């Protein structure tokens, strides 16, 4: 195992406290004696990553390789990455099929006919750029689009009981 090898976590028991799960993929950032420092990305939130020291026996090498160009970019920015060592992945605020309400009036939504108070349903478990996909179908409102989903900031939504 060497720096920038891609790996898969086979034993997650010692690392669950960081929110990583079995079969999550990562990249070795540093090789230590019995451990490797691995960069993991949160599969449920594309803005989150963590660096964790992992026992070599808890991982398996992937077949894919990282290009020299990517290795160079990583090397230039490794110190920035290391600031997130042992960061704990957060769980998404919303989950699939949660009923949500749009709690703000913003031009970026109103230009599509969406307004404060509209109710919709989350249609994906993944947070991308702090937003989730919401379906506002069946509103019976005068909207520009019907049956379409919209990327809505999680800060602009609340769960409806």
Task: Describe the fold and architecture.
By secondary structure, this protein is mostly beta strands. The protein folds into 2 domains: 6-82, SH3 type barrels (Roll); 99-159. Helices cover 12% and strands 30% of the residues. It is built from 2 helices and 10 strands; from the N terminus they run βββββαβαββββ. It has helices spanning 68-82, 107-110, and strands at 6-9, 25-31, 35-41, 49-55, 59-61, 99-102, 119-122, 131-135, 149-153, 157-159. A 5-stranded antiparallel sheet has the order 4-3-2-1-5, with helices on one face. A hairpin with a 3-residue loop joins strand 2 (25-31) and strand 3 (35-41). The protein is elongated, with a radius of gyration of 20 Å. The mean pLDDT is 87.
Secondary structure layout:
Elements (H helix, E strand, L loop, with lengths): L5 E4 L15 E7 L3 E7 L7 E7 L3 E3 L6 H15 L16 E4 L4 H4 L8 E4 L8 E5 L13 E5 L3 E3 L2
Antiparallel strand pairs: 1-2, 1-5, 2-3, 3-4, 6-7, 6-10, 7-8, 8-9
Any idea what the radius of gyration is?
20 Å
Total DSSP helices: 2
- The helix/strand class is mainly beta
Give the low-pLDDT segments. Answer: none
Major sheet summary line: 5 strands, antiparallel
Instruction: Label the overall shape.
Output: elongated
Strand arrangement within the widest β-sheet reads 4-3-2-1-5
- Annotated CATH architecture of the largest domain: Roll
Order of helix and strand elements from N to C terminus:
EEEEEHEHEEEE
Number of domains: 2
Give average pLDDT, whole number: 87
Helix content: 10-25%
């Amino acid at each position: 195992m060497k720096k920038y090898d891609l790996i898969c976590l086979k034993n997650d028991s010692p690392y669950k406290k960081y929110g990583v799960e079995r079969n999550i993929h990562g990249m070795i950032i540093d090789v230590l004696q019995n451990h490797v420092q691995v960069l993991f990305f949160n599969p449920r939130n594309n803005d989150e990553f963590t660096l964790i020291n992992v026992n070599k026996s808890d991982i398996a090498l992937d077949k894919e390789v990282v290009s020299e160009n990517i290795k160079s970019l990583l090397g230039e920015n490794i110190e920035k990455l290391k600031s997130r060592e042992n960061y704990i992945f957060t769980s998404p605020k919303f989950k699939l099929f949660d009923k949500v309400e749009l709690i703000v009036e913003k031009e970026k939504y109103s230009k599509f006919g969406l307004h404060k108070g509209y109710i919709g349903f989350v249609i994906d478990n993944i947070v991308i750029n702090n937003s989730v996909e919401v379906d506002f179908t069946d509103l019976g409102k005068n909207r520009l689009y019907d049956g379409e989903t919209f990327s809505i900031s999680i800060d602009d939504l609340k769960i409806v009981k």
